[in-house]
């Protein structure tokens, strides 16, 4: 029987392994073609995975020859817009690696094409698919720490990649911060309003571009999100999920990105005028996310489920452009030295 999902995988580099392994586990999914601008990469991948599909160097031929209905875009960021546009125009749905695209104009254009063609376009934000961040989200959303006024994320890792990131102008903001900014949106449910960003390259950094940044985002409802990050911080690393502090008017939630989150909230029955109030610890329900797989597989499960249910995936392009706007506005602020408002960028 023919598979329901006939997939073209675009880009056969490192990350595509995870996507291909996932697709090969799904009984309703068949990889019908692998493409790469370097055809030999596609050929080697086909051999390595024991696939019998076609290999191509361009997307249009791959789709036309195979009758594919879904494209996995695992190419480099500068190719994402072109691949998404072609795939949707040729009738395919698209699941893409982050980032959605490299400019806000292109992100918005992808949303317009998805609407015009009626195709789905969803983005890989694997760090959302983690039972700990879901528990933290539930803790915040259920009001356990009260009305949230501040959220802070620290990300300090000494990462010696040695590849393209070492030469990028803004490796941290462009390649990594999308994850942390998207996590902040998930945890708070807030919409970004403005940002002031100072981006810099600390002494001793092995990156050519700016490997560190401090951002102050104003979010909806007056909430402030403070991001402090560095990719050239030796010693005492944070986790890749970042370290989080969320302060509400009844207490504070903490997540170090390694252990389960917890909160300390004001204990009931305290006297008026007490200088520092006694607090009690709350450990969250860890059942908020029992149903799903985690990481990349978790995000892919959600994308497929959304297609089944004819609804936008959680990381649909319409949602993801808010996280992208945070990255692109932070870059604009860093280069202009001014606070940047996000409303014009987000206008479709
Ligand atoms: N979600 C995550 O945690 C995570 C982690 C790493 C990388 N990524 C993302 O995954 C994507 C791929 O990263 P990677 O590390 O596999 O890169 P890579 O350089 O190893 O592989 C990319 C492949 O795409 C091919 N390619 C480039 N342009 C193409 C085009 N127009 N058509 C067809 N093939 C094309 C290249 O030849 C290369 O083989 C990037 O967008 C990156 O940001 C995400």
From TrEMBL:
InterPro entries noted in UniProt: Gfo/Idh/MocA-like_OxRdtase_N, Gfo/Idh/MocA_Oxidoreductases, GFO_IDH_MocA-like_dom, NAD(P)-bd_dom_sf
Gene Ontology molecular function, alphabetical: nucleotide binding
Pfam families registered for this protein in UniProt: GFO_IDH_MocA, GFO_IDH_MocA_C3
Domain GFO/IDH/MocA-like oxidoreductase: 134-253
Ranges in coiled-coil conformation: none
Domain Gfo/Idh/MocA-like oxidoreductase N-terminal: 6-123
Domain of life assignment: Bacteria
SUPFAM superfamilies: Glyceraldehyde-3-phosphate dehydrogenase-like, C-terminal domain, NAD(P)-binding Rossmann-fold domains
Name of the protein in its database record: Putative dehydrogenase
